[in-house]
Amino acid sequence: MNQGFSQFIVFVVSSAFAQEVLKLRLESDKSIPIVGENLILSCLTHDIFKDGVIYWHIPNVVEHFKCYSVNGGVCERNTSSYSFTANSSGAYAYIAGLDRARDRGTWKCMQIDAKYNNANATMGIVIYTSPIAVNLVQPIPIDGDLGMESITLMCQTLHCAFPAPNIIWYYMTDGAIAPFIGFSDKKVTRECPRQEAVYTSTLHLPRGTNFSGNIPLTAKFLCGVTHPSLGEETKYSNVSNDVIFAVHVSNVNILDSENGTNVFYEGFPQTLKCVSSRSRPVPIIRWFLRTNNAFNSMTCITNNITERNTSDINGLHVTESEITLIPKRDQIYKIFCVGNIYGQQAVESKLVEIDVLYQADQPYVSELGRKFPWLENQTGILSCNTSNNGNPPSQVIWFSHRDMNGTHLIITKLTSNDNGKLAFCQLVNKYTVDKNTTVKSPPVTLVIECMVLIITDSPVIEMNITSPLTLNETQSISVLCTATGNPSPDPPTWTRQSSSTLRFENVNRNDSGTYTCSVRAKSETNGDLTNQKEIHIHVQYAPDINLTITGSDHMNMTSNLTCEANGFPTNYKFHPWKHMFGNVTIRSNLQSNTEGLINSTKNILTLKRLSLQDMGTYTCSADNGIRGANGDVIQTSAAVLNVKGKPEIVNRKHDTFAGAIGSSVNIYIAFYSDPVITDFKFQRDGSNIENTSRTNMYLSTNVVELLFHNTNVKLAVLMANLLIQNLTADDFDGYNLVLENALGKTDFKLQLYPSGT
Q1: Are 225 and 134 in contact (CB under 8 A)?
Q2: Mean pLDDT for back-to-back runs of 10 residues, the chain (757 residues)
Q3: How does DSSP classify residue 362?
Q4: Which CATH fold would you assign to the domain 647-754?
Q5: What is the pLDDT of residue 7?
Q6: Domain residues of the chain, as ranges?
């Protein structure tokens, strides 16, 4: 397909005459001078040259060429590029191999006769350069797919050209070519001498370029070049590989995949299918929900979507997208889908409005007009009511001993046989029929007052349990209240609870009190007949024990521990006190001064002349025969007694120490202090001992065993230490330890002896 290509360019000729006597004209043997071709210029006169001289003025050449206008005129000289001849008709210039730099411009011939008359003619020569051919310099290396990528093709002239050529793009299918319009541009890519240039046309096909017109799905591309002024045939480039076009989605449609309608049932999943037209590459489908009538209130649906793609034999694709909805009542469903491929504006389907069917809310039956009780021989009317009648609106079906349909149940000529009969209504619509559901009211009992019967003064109340009722805490009980009479009474109700049964699960002390069962019977002739019956409930519970410490907690003072019980019944039995220190029981049978008192709510333990051995945890206990929430009959409470005082020496018999001259001795004294120790010091001869290189005083901790009321216990104590190094004979002497806290000072004397004495 790589053929030659020419470009056509126009040149301009002009002539000028100095006077009428001599007339010249300048002509060319070619209408379109082209670079490299030969050209003949003729300087002609209307009259035969008789005498005179012809002068040639050549562009870009300073000198003139002269020819004599005699018969068989002779020209002055020739060159390799130019040769000149003359005859009786005129003078001729022969140009060999046109060159744009050398020969373009204005050519002029001038005649001067013997009388010095002159005439001249000029011609402007424009020399054209043909691009020869074009080449597809950037062919597609492999088959291109506009559905997946953008494609750029480049076509370039093979040679410099002047003026600019026309470059046209073509597509080829089955060996035939046709022009392809759009997406291309042309520019100079390389400048050449003499205003010539190499031209390039770029064809850009963006990804998603739609296939239009009669072009088949797959085509090859090539370019052609032509000169605007020459009648040359178009010269074509080489051919690209196959280009596969994108095919835009033209339409999308929503289909109901189940029943072919837009009727959905509340609570039942429903599937809609959106199908795209054939396109390539695989189209994308999205779903949108318009939740009200506003046009711009659209929500993109992203859940419950499944997609399936199919393709036909021509490589075009169809996408089927399914969305599953669980419809709800009172919600507007306006759904549409959109489809497109990359780079294409989305195409919308028609808007689908969905009608959601649902059953009515549960109805209830009420008297219309006269309330129960109805009177014998009169007419009673029942109405079927509901807060929502469903979609589509429901019809009413009545069920009673008198079979009647309609919104109202009308019972005429009431008799005693109607008394106690049941009636209820059922609501039916397309939803309940298609989905086999039932929507019916609770039954009501007809109450007919017979005129011949004797009306009792008031309804009779009975209970399954007699009053008073005594319960232990955490027990459960149900008390049923029933009522009879004529007319039939309404269901009884309890104070504190609204049903006819009084129920307690895990009864507690706060449930004690009086409960009243009330009942009312409506009489058409005697007005409301009422009655009440009470039951007294006593809840027994184990005592709560509260232990408090009063008096003083200081050494040698008196402290009172008060154990107080609060329960029901109040027949408390107090048990001996228990004294512990840590995990060690010191005393387990402490008797109080109030123990054994009848109907007493308190048990008081008095501790006189407090000492260190009275410290510890005291526990009191009592019961009233009722098990507590913990399952125990005996309930307890404990409190800690800390005895405070000035520092107390733990072992006053530990007051002598021994050491050898030249050795070291550590004098240590154990003591207990509550509150905390604030100062300690060792003294000798009434003077405080200071810390020196030989003496060092410090505190440390220790655990010692003591007797608390003849029981061994372990007590955490402090140790006052005096370390004396390099003993001398002068160190053997009496010493005094002074301990101090917020409650006072304690002095303790000790003696240091030489070893062996």
Answers
A1: yes
A2: 33 36 70 79 67 76 68 67 77 81 80 70 74 68 66 82 82 83 71 76 78 65 78 79 80 67 83 85 82 52 66 75 82 82 84 88 90 85 92 90 72 86 92 94 86 65 89 90 86 79 87 90 79 92 95 94 94 94 93 65 93 96 92 95 95 93 95 96 95 95 95 96 95 96 96 89
A3: P
A4: Immunoglobulin-like (2.60.40)
A5: 31
A6: 12-125, 134-244, 252-357, 364-449, 539-643, 647-754
- DSSP state for residue 314 in the 8-state scheme: T
Per the CB < 8 A criterion, the answer to whether 409 and 382 are in contact is yes
What pLDDT score does 707 carry? 93
Cα gap 170→214, rounded to integer Å: 14
- Measured CA distances, 321 to 247, 279, 379, 393, 724 (Å): 19, 15, 61, 34, 99
CB 229 within 8 A of CB 9: yes
Q: Sort 102 into a burial class: Cβ within 10 Å, 0-12 / 13-18 / 19+.
A: middle
- Between 3.40.50.2300, 3.40.30.10, 2.60.40.10, 3.90.1570.10, what CATH number should domain 539-643 receive? 2.60.40.10
DSSP string spanning 110-176? EEE-TT--EEEEEEEE--BB--B-EEESS--SS-EETTTS-EEEEEEESS-BBSPPEEEEEEEETTE
C-alpha span between 396 and 383 (Å, rounded) = 10
pTM of the model as a whole:
0.43
CB 724 within 8 A of CB 694: yes
DSSP structural state of residue 420: T
Contacts of 755 (CB under 8 A, 6+ apart): 658, 659, 660
Measured CA to CA in angstroms, residue 391 lies from 408, 439, 472, 536 at distances of 21, 13, 56, 53
- Pair of tokens at residue 714: 């372990």
- CATH tag for 134-244 (out of 3.40.50.300, 3.90.1150.30, 1.10.1200.10, 2.60.40.10): 2.60.40.10
